[in-house]
TrEMBL record:
Transmembrane segments: none annotated. PROSITE patterns: GLUTAREDOXIN_1, GLUTAREDOXIN_2. It comes from Berryella intestinalis. Residues 8-64 form the Glutaredoxin domain. This is Glutaredoxin domain-containing protein.
Length: 80
């Protein structure tokens, strides 16, 4: 398993784009810290502070927000 250090994925299990990213990570044995916005009441607030919006999926890389499932998957493929 590859671990992406200093990466946090904000996601929701009812979001198809989020599920796409999570499935990619699982299928390729990639781990990173994850925050389910439905289970973590402060997660959306943190997203606004970090990236200025509540959009998910969002991969936070050393404090920088990356949006769009295809961009997140591409990043993970290159850095895992």
């Amino acid at each position: 398993m590859a671990k992406l250090e200093n990466h946090v994925l904000y996601w929701r299990p009812t979001c198809p784009f989020c599920v796409r990213v999570v499935n990619y990570l699982d299928e390729h044995g990639i781990e990173c810290d994850m925050r389910n916005v439905l289970e973590d009441p402060t997660a959306y607030d943190d997203l606004v502070v970090i990236g200025g919006k509540r959009q998910i999926p969002c991969l936070v890389i050393e404090g920088r927000a990356l949006y769009e499932s295809s961009d997140i998957i591409e990043h993970c493929a290159q850095h895992a």
